[in-house]
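User: Show me sequence and structure for the first protein, then do the same for the second.

Assistant: Starting with the first protein.
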Amino acid sequence: MPPHSLPLLPDIVLPQASDPTLIGRIWSPEHGGPAVVTVRDGEVFDITSREIPTVRDLIESRIPVDRIRSLPGRRIGPLAAILQNSDEGRRAPDAPWLLAPIDLQAVKASGVTFVVSLLERVIEEQARGAPDRAAAIRADIDRVIGRDLSALRPGSPEAMEVKAALVARGVWSQYLEVGIGPDAEIFTKGQPMSAVGVGAHVGIHPVSTWNNPEPEIAILVASDGRIVGATLANDVNLRDVEGRSALLLGRAKDNNASCALGPFLRLFDESFTLDDVRQAELSLLIEGADGFRLEGASSMKRISRDPEALVAATIGKNHQYPDGFVLLLGTMFAPVQDRDRPGEGFTHRTEDVVTIATPSLGTLINRVMPCADCVPWTFGTSALMRNLAQRGLL
């Protein structure tokens, strides 16, 4: 029996804006591959062409936003129908559905960019992946640190004084190093083409018993370092795996369907800029099939490293991305509400529905499943190139 349908309705999913410039991707059964699309008056238009065979080419071409709006495209159908078919648990394979709104871009992420999540990473490390130890360690960390780290600018002399004091007290951590030290944590969340879109299942590796969603904004960056737009992200995290060792970050972060992006990429224009990203307030809702409900939030106003600084730490003379990249900016959400036994905090269960939203970018909705029960990732870069060539787009 398929699970109950997700609330994938245009009024819920789309940004609360009069005329946002939206770019996305759909799976086109007609072509056996993806298409670059935009949304106009509730209709989805395919704007794929030899000039724009991929989202990567659209971004790298420097086509002005006003020209993107005027591209004729080809009408695919109403957004409402495509959204409904984007629910992986109820999908009709002969109709289009939404994909993650990026393609050839690298999927990068920045960690420990908010003080609340910084302290939770320290707790994970101290707990060595054992959730039942978290509550006692949390109280001890609060007692030892004894000050609001949010006032510190990472890498500043004041931050280095705090570091010296914590080292002297024997509580320095690799997470504190990247949280208040001079260098940001930038890691690879997933491979190009591996992210899933709105309505898709998001995957939890079966080895994990302590995990959570991470509601984030992701910014799209061109190969020359321009920040051109933003979307929503769920940086699914296995707390017990990373807590055992930070060297297990790849196992904790990069699994089948472990990164969701969408619903659309909103390009910067006269009504939406990076300053809107800096001011964004994200909401999170987790609803379990068992009746469990958890609400959370993440405020970009409280980020400790500016998005431009995080981009500068990712790309430059020493590191290039010829196809650009999407960069997840981190989250302040750190769930401590108990779900099962007291003191163990939150962890996912199969069929949890995760809703991440902010008015300027819309709503990203996904259902949690074991990684092996999510659609396997089989359509990679080589498959895309062959598909585009067969369609005469290369």
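Switching to the second protein now.
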Amino acid sequence: MTASPISVAVIGAGMAGRTHANAWRQAGTVYDLGLPPVRLAAIADAHLPFAEDAAARYGYEKAVGDWRAVAEDPTIDVVSIVVGNALHREIAVALAEAGKHVLCEKPLAGTLEDAAAMAEVEAAHPELVLATGFTFRRNPSVAQLARLVADGALGTISHLDARYHCDYGADPLVPIAWRYKGPMGTGALGDIGSHLVDTAELIGGPIASVSGAVLVTTIPERPVAGAAVAGGRGVTASAEDPTEPVENDDVATFTAHFASGAAGTFSCSRVAFGRPNQMEIGVSGTRGSASWDLARAGEIKLADASSPAGLGGFRQVLANPGFPYFANGSSMAFAGVGLNQIEQFTYQAHAFLQQVAGITEGALPPCASFADGYREMRILDAVARSAAAGGAAIDVA
């Protein structure tokens, strides 16, 4: 462990990039003291005004218009990659070769080949922390579901149901962007389905095979934006603007078979009108059931045999210091305060910095590795192959 400052940078100044920028800024405010000081060095974006705005808002020293300036800066230790998936491999490889620790947003890459190459880079650089950003595993309520399953509190698990529905693409006038480009399986499935798959394996263990997959493109073309946009939400173009074809999936559904013997059902959509960000997880076992809803992130619903006779059923259990991550996870860490999605990024940043600093005693669980991100992409690839084969069962390699 060193007391020397850890210098951090963020590549990408859109919605998620700003959330990473905030997380590095907040990482030292949660959990035990002991992290080295964090230097907020730089934010990079190909559209320099976005980088300048984010750097000013979150207190970073400078903004740059090219990610290579971050890779070439010998004073920067840690970098978040928060740009289009197709760019992840090139940037991550360059950063690793420059000796930098990397936290790459999910999904790990734009293609399975790129993800495999990134996992190989990780294996070649054991001295570096190279991680994939799966933040929902940091949600205290989600982690509590995983604990209930691991402790056997719900008995033998029979079924896990996972849904993630968003409406960011529901309006046909939302302009074309990198999210709408790439092969089938890289749309809603890759963007938000990746969260479902990682969360499901956190709770239910390894997925052995998938089947019954259906991928649907509801809006076949979108207008071309007339100017740079960040975030992709709340932005529309004109119906008279030229259009480009949407290449990937708006909706994805599939079933899964876990190695434990449990069944899983999954659905995700980026065109679910009226559902801006709805994620729900339910798990059923022989001795109990539990569920979580992102809209009520500070609680779980639990039904088990502990209720008095005739008074069974689901009950509300508020997230509290007995849940993972909750104690010391905020300045008001008591039941009823609630949780939000932004906090998950802060907890992830804290865990990442602990890994970089070599802190192991009392440390948070380590971040998902590039190898973990590659495995998740192999599952998504199996889903896409199942859909292409009319729903055939596909083993996860």
